Amino acid sequence: MTSAIILSIGDELVLGQTVDTNSAWLSRELATIGVRIAAHATVPDDQPSIERAIRSATVNCDVLIISGGLGPTEDDLTRQALAGVLGMPLETDDASLKTLTAFFVNLKREMAGSNRIQAMRPRGTTMIENTCGTAPGIAAMFGDCRIFVVPGVPKEMKAMFSRDILPALREAGGGAAIVSTTLHTFGLGESNIAEMLGDVMQRGRNPSVGTTVAGGVVSLRVNSYFESPEKAVAEMERTTATCREKLGHLIYGQDEETLPSIVAGLLKASGKKVATAESCTGGLLAKYLTDVAGSSEYFTHGWVTYSNEAKTQQLGVPEDMLKGHGAVSSAVVRAMAKGAMRLAQADVAMSISGVAGPDGGTPEKPVGMVCIGIAFKDPHNASSVGTHGRTFRFSGDREFVRDRSAKMALAILRFHLTGIVMPF
User: What is the pTM of this model?
Assistant: First the structure.
């Protein structure tokens, strides 16, 4: 398998002032032709640092793509660093200088003397035309490693890479491809998911399956590398089917699908209206439900009843219930959901009440304890209302507890709408 390293140049990248989106884009494009990414590296606008990075990378990969440092200013030092590594002087490329001069003539602007360096390349290398800007790219060989230098400006880099570099690497790659997909789960931890998948996650397996966690969502990344795109896709789909078989309804979506978008689709398909009543989440559940375009089709009302008085006055939760059970209780969230559903004339309502922290916890109701309720119309008797309440204990800071609570409410709603018993 052909391997590549992507080297990004720039002080602003090293300091975190600018996010390096080029490396991610290049990685995805290279994967389509079967090129394995060995590493990403970022170095500042310093010639010795760039030279060291180039030398180190070229002994560890077949292809090195360098992004940035081709501008006309004093801190644009990539071409000088490449010349230093190659042991070759910089010389003017006449065709590039002609193109560069014409660029400024067409703009009716005088070209600064500093721009001339953009038409220079190390002796023995070739220029890659830039049709979107002033800085051409450079193609070179160092030992057995092919080097491509492209501008850091994303528009210029993408055009250059797609037009000239990708076809050259595809031809050399012989038609191999890496294809990927991501499956999303919510409700169980990463270790539980890994245990359920078993040998599907075995190292060295092709397609490979790995897990990542973000915002309580455990995602499975399936990467498939084979000699042709068709074979790669077929094997990826086979492994994806195996993952679905092992995890069942824990998987709620794939690739760009989110928990809110999946729930939105179920609500639209069912024609049901939903309302929310929230305390500790402060309207976060309502936000998630309305983040999806077209949410007016299914979302009717949302209440944020933070105080006990609001729960009573706005939702009709009995005072004696609040005094007897406390705001964070299954009884109260069921009453909140029932009141919201009645007032909104909705088909289903979700409610949340909990201790998000960092203060307010007690031994009986510690920080992270959250109750989630649901109220729904009986499908067999429209005048009858069913309610359920569940209690959870989420670890983490205030933001995490609130986010996890809202997502768990979405998960409960998802299983209710599908008629499937929650597996956790």
Answer: 0.85
193 and 127 within one domain: no
> For residues 220 and 17, what is the distance between their CA atoms, to the nearest angstrom?
31
DSSP alpha helix (H) spans, 217-371 = 229-247, 259-270, 284-290, 308-315, 319-325, 330-344
What is the per-residue pLDDT for 380? 76
Q: Residue 211 above 90 pLDDT?
A: yes
Shortest CA distance to 147 belongs to which of 157, 137, 156? Answer: 137
Asked if residue 333 belongs to a domain, the reply is yes
Tokens of 188: 């169980």
DSSP at 46: -
Per DSSP, 420 falls in state: P
Cα atoms in the 13 Å half-sphere on the side-chain side of 32: 8
Residue 116's CATH number: 3.40.980.10
Query: What are the structure tokens assigned to 325, written together?
Result: 């059970």
Tokens read off for 136: 């051409």
* Closest by CA position to 147, among listed 85, 225, 221: 85
Contacts of 142 (CB under 8 A, 6+ apart): 54, 58, 64, 85, 86
Say yes or no: 72 and 164 in one domain: yes
* Domain span holding position 360: 259-418
Q: Give the lowest-confidence range in 303-312, 326-335, 381-390.
A: 381-390
* Buried-exposed string 321-340: b where 16+ CB fall within 10 A, e elsewhere: bbeebbbbbbbbbbbbbbbb
Nearest alpha carbon to residue 70 among 12, 120, 26 = 120
Report the distance separating Cα 305 and Cα 292, nearest Å.
24
R_g of the chain, CA atoms, integer Å: 29
Residue 372 makes CB contacts below 8 A (sequence gap 6+) with 333, 350, 351, 352, 389, 390, 392, 405, 408, 409, 412
Per the CB < 8 A criterion, the answer to whether 338 and 262 are in contact is no
Element (H, E) at 141: strand 137-142
Residue 172 has pLDDT above 80, yes or no: no
Provide the pLDDT for residue 175: 81
Residue 424 lies in a domain: no
Question: At which of 139, 173, 207 does a domain end?
Answer: 173
Query: How does the average pLDDT of the chain come out, rounded?
Result: 96
- 331 lies in the same domain as 307: yes
User: Closest Cα to residue 185, out of 210, 209, 216?
Assistant: 216
